[in-house]
Amino acid sequence: MRHFIAAALAAGSLLVASQAFAADYKIMAPAAPGGGWDQTARTMQAALQDEEISPSVQVINVPGAGDTIGLAQFVNQSSGDADALIVGGYVMVGAILTNGSPVTLDQVTPIARLTGEFEAIVVPANSDIKDMAGLVAKLKENPGGVSWGGGSAGGTDHITAGLVAKAVGVDPTKVNYIAFSGGGEALAAILGGQVTVGISGYSEFSAQIAAGQLRLLGISSDEKVAGIEGPTFKEGGVDVAIQNWRMVAAAPGISDEQKAAISADVEKMVKSESWKKAVADKGWADTYLAGDEFVAQLKEDTAATESILKDIGLVK
Questions:
Q1: pLDDT for residue 214 is more than 70
Q2: CA pseudo-torsion sign 297, 315, 36, 257
Q3: Average pLDDT over residues 204-227
Q4: pLDDT for the residue 287
Q5: Which of 17, 184, 198, 258 has its CA 20 to 30 A from that of 164?
């Protein structure tokens, strides 16, 4: 009996110790509340806590300069901090290039690609633009007269607008793109008629589309997406397909052991029912990719994005 009690106490001590050493993560969303970065960070926060992977998760919003202000702050202030994470992705790759940022994703510790999402082009319900053909007609008539409200300059939204223009024979450098620091600000401008069209990830507009406040002109997928009622760009006569992706990275200067522990926590999170349900509810695609494969993919995507940005005149 004494041996049993001692073993039970030891097991209990190990459990307490493991709980005590679980990371209290701080996740930076390098944008204002309401957008894709913020939604991703807060979905991570909920899943990590609900699944008891982390006892406490804090989300920090740092908007500005196409996410590069937050990235610079993260790199400069979080070195060696194994509790610090940052949400990043395709938008950040483009913003770094267009802003000439001295801080790049080479200076963080990539952990995993998490999700993918198609771009959506929307207009207010009372807009005279009824479909992609109507948008194309206005764009050809007066490119500068069509204002596009979206996220960071040089990000996925901006790139998509440029690709749409190029695909229909309009000079992409003539695109009148208005960048907003957060999804909430962009949505308000779109609903308020301050811009002609809105462009962003589908999930940022889904509630307003369902409520009849916004009209979906098109989605940037190759084929129909389950659960999304609306044409693809291609079905609307615009030969463009593109998918945004989002990732999580850790701070620079952490040890291999710390990176492995973070990677294990993220893997538990993406395999959890809480995360899977949230991803499905938001219309995101599960594009989880980790380790060396993700590092290699990140390098390829960075090179490809630079080529696209040069092609549409956003980077020289």
A1: yes
A2: positive
A3: 93
A4: 93
A5: 184
